[in-house]
C-alpha cells in the first residue's frame, strides 16, 4: 500500500481531431490519482471520465505496457517518455509528479511522424526504413543450424544485442532539434554489422537504409546527444559512429 497521498493534477493535452485538422492544447483536471499508478493508468482514468460525460476520449498509442513494443509515445513536460530515464511512457509512474502539478502532454513532433489524432502519430516511416535493409536474407527451409556453428566474439555479440534492444519508439527523433533518426537507424544497422551473418549484405543495407531515412524527411545529425539521453533502451551514440564508418566504407571502400 502506498504511503503517499493521492494526487490532484491539471493536464494540458494536445487535442487534434484528425491529420487535417488544426490541434490545440485543452485543459483537464484529474483527481485521486495514486502515486503508484502508471502514467497510462492515469490517462485511462481521464478517458473513463470523458466517456462517462459523453466526451471524446484522448487517443494515445499503447500496447504491451511493459516497455517492450515501442508503441507508447508521449511527450511529457517537454521530454519524450517523460522525466524518468531508461524507461518508456508505459513504465513511468505517477510518483515522479507532485500533488497539484500541471503536466503538459503532447505527441512526438517531427515532419516524418505526422499526427493522426490527438497524441497518436504515424511512425510507418520507421517501418519503411526497416524494409529497406533491416534484415538478413537466409534460406530458412531445412534443418536449423547449430547455435554455435559460427563463432562470434563475446564483445561483438553483446554490442549487437545492445543495439537490437531498440524498440523503434521514435523518442530519439522527438528529442532531436533536427528530428534526426540517426540513433534508430544506426541501431538497426549495427545489430547486423557486428555479426558475420550481417556482413554479406552490409554495403547495400547501410546505403539503402540511409537513403530511406533521408527520403522520409528526417533531419541531419548534429551530434547534440539528446537522442541518447532520452532513449528508453540506452542505445549508445557509438552506433551512429559505427554507421558513419559503414556508410563511408560502402561509398568509397
Ligand atoms: S534508438 Fe532508442 S529512442 Fe530511438 S527508436 Fe530505438 S529505442 Fe526508441
Ligand atoms: S506500451 Fe509497449 S513499450 Fe510502452
What would you note in describing this structure?
- The protein starts with 6 loop residues before the first strand and ends with a helix.
- Helix content is 35%, strand content 13%.
- By secondary structure, it is α+β, with helices and mostly antiparallel strands.
- A hairpin with a 2-residue loop joins strand 3 and strand 4 (79-80).
- FE2/S2 (inorganic) cluster (FES) is lined by residues 62-65, 67-72, 88-90.
List keywords for this structure.
13% strand, 35% helix, 9 helices, binds FE2/S2 (inorganic) cluster, alpha+beta, binds iron/sulfur cluster, two-stranded antiparallel ribbon, single chain, 253 residues, five-stranded mixed β-sheet
Amino acid at each position: 500500500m502506498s504511503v503517499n497521498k493521492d494526487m490532484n493534477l491539471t493536464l494540458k493535452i494536445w487535442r487534434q481531431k484528425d491529420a487535417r485538422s488544426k490541434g490545440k492544447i485543452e485543459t483537464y483536471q484529474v483527481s485521486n490519482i495514486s502515486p503508484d499508478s502508471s502514467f497510462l493508468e492515469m490517462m485511462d482514468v481521464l478517458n473513463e471520465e470523458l466517456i462517462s460525460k459523453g466526451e471524446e476520449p484522448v487517443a494515445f498509442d499503447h500496447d504491451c505496457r511493459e516497455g517492450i513494443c515501442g508503441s507508447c509515445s508521449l511527450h511529457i513536460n517537454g521530454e519524450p517518455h517523460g522525466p524518468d530515464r531508461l524507461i518508456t511512457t508505459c513504465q513511468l509512474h505517477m510518483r515522479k509528479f507532485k500533488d497539484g502539478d500541471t503536466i503538459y502532454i503532447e505527441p512526438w513532433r517531427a515532419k516524418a511522424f505526422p499526427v493522426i489524432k490527438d497524441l497518436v502519430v504515424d511512425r510507418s516511416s520507421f517501418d519503411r526504413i526497416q524494409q529497406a535493409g533491416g534484415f538478413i536474407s537466409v534460406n530458412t527451409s531445412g534443418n536449423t543450424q547449430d547455435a554455435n556453428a559460427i563463432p562470434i566474439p563475446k564483445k561483438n555479440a553483446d554490442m549487437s544485442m545492445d543495439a537490437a534492444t531498440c524498440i523503434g519508439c521514435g523518442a530519439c527523433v522527438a528529442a532531436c532539434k533536427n528530428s534526426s533518426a540517426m540513433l534508430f537507424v544506426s541501431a538497426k544497422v549495427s545489430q547486423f554489422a557486428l555479426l558475420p551473418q550481417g556482413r554479406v549484405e552490409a554495403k547495400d543495407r547501410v546505403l539503402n537504409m540511409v537513403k530511406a531515412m533521408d527520403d522520409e524527411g528526417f533531419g541531419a545529425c548534429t551530434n547534440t546527444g539528446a537522442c541518447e539521453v532520452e532513449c528508453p533502451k540506452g542505445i549508445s551514440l557509438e552506433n551512429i559512429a559505427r554507421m558513419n564508418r559503414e556508410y563511408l566504407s560502402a561509398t568509397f571502400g
